[in-house]
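Q: Second attempt. The first request was missing the SMILES, so the protein and zinc ion are both included now.
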Amino acid sequence: MNNFTKVGSDYECFSTFIPPYVLDNMAKAGIEEAKSTILQSQFFRETRAENSKKMGLLAATVPKGKADVQVYDSENTTVFQKKLVRGQDDPKTNDPAVDNAYDHVNDDRDFLKDEIIGLNSLDNNGMNLICNVHFGKKYNNAFWDGKQITLGDGDGVIFTNFAKSLDVVAHELGHGVVQFTANFEYHHQPGALHEHFADVFGTVVTQWVEKKTAEKAAGKEIEWLQITKKADWLIGDEIMGPELYGEALRCMSEPGAAYDNNILGKDPQPAHMKNIYTGPGDNGGVHINSGIMNKAFYLTAIEIGTDQASRIWYNALRNLWPTAIFKEAVGEIIKAARLLAKDNKVDKEATQRVRTAFREVGLF
Ligand SMILES: [Zn+2]
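A: Got both inputs this time. The predicted holo structure:
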């Protein structure tokens, strides 16, 4: 399934949280909602490409705002910004999807503003943060479409409401930050960098909000996760429904280990360049090969802490470009570490830690 549309010379990112190969496995396992999710996604991707062509719009044209959170209810249709149900500082609505989405987007905006990164919303120009909830019927996905995020209710069996998960929301908003910085093309290695940086935002925002440390809870410590305050390094674990409780969509500390079951299939992420996926699926493996970069981020963060690793990665992201491949990203990340160390913004040995991490995944 082709997941990106070329509009003029500009690649627009239409990035869904649940990768196409996972939905295909679910459809094969007989999950009706997976089939309808695939169809609904195809429909508005095509409509959107058509509209973009007609209006000559570029994804990056977003009005300046006050970095306000705006949650809209699609009322189980596929209409965006249908009904504003909670604006900035509005009281709770008692609809958990609306209130969870509001809190997560609000937390994300606060994280970006914090001194670790220091951004005024996704575009550093105060764009309002728009989030649609109750999109479609039992829609098993979430996505960033160039100007807003949209969350489905899930089917309630395989996936719960996508608004429940901070790392899903932060991942999708992370695509926004990437769009306004490096703006990677959404295929092959540049696309895998798009997914990688979105996962980095997913985990670092969650760790920041929950005040977790980088050191991973391992073995029997997992049951003490809440007490030990260690990060789980999982992405999408909170949206797993009763059938798949305990699984996740991605595991940054152990790419390839996030899930293995009859419904989703087996997590195909490699953790080393020697296993890089070279097939045509998933736009050339954008959700697959991101595992290699994810592992390097994890290995760096457990050495120098998540805050310092985030600062390095973000500074590299600002200097990267749309066609960048892994090796080029590694070069920029090492350069960012060196410059930040010189300014005493990260530890002196950060550069060595980053290099060691990339050596371990076969990228240095
Ligand atoms: Zn993504």
